């Protein structure tokens, strides 16, 4: 260490770790903690070295404003408390604000339709993830809501499209259907149906009339092909 380093450390200790007899009756250490670290402690105790707010423009502005000083829209300031304490106070206020809308929205939601997608054995300890890739799309022009998803297990080469009217009292034809890719990219009719089989890696709506899918070859070999395809919804 250079003499400059030693002087820097000595100055730090002198400034922040002097004995403080006025704190002897307080819980914890008998010296001032480093001024930044005290704000990060997850404790409800007051700060050992609270900040000096004298000359702060914001506090002076609030003090001189009779309307803002009593405004319920301003979150109260706790100059003697750490950031963890303030964070918990703010979370409590936010939770209280969100509770009423959550109750109202929750009571307004009801089941429009129920479809059985698959069945699993009741004896299985852990439920396998068979439902994958749910992507939502809302066609505002036709007032239709779409859900794209794939099912694992034996239908890996299919993508399912669920379509519902945004008005739950109305129904649409072909509410759910599946598109199978399989070996549709084979170059000739003589190719084996197992040689070029494709499964869906991802699928999103490109616009109201087009679905974009990422396909991969299902064969177990190096250099699997990846295909980006755009399919007309019609």
From TrEMBL:
Species, as recorded: Orthonyx spaldingii (Chowchilla)
GO cellular component entries: anaphase-promoting complex; nuclear periphery
Entry keyword set: Cell cycle, Cell division, Mitosis, Ubl conjugation pathway
Residues of the Anaphase-promoting complex subunit 4 C-terminal half WD40 domain: 136-234
Xref: InterPro entries: APC4, APC4_C
One Pfam family of this chain: WD40_APC4_C-half
Gene expressing this chain: Anapc4
Protein name, entry field: APC4 protein
Gene Ontology process terms (BP): anaphase-promoting complex-dependent catabolic process; cell division; protein K11-linked ubiquitination
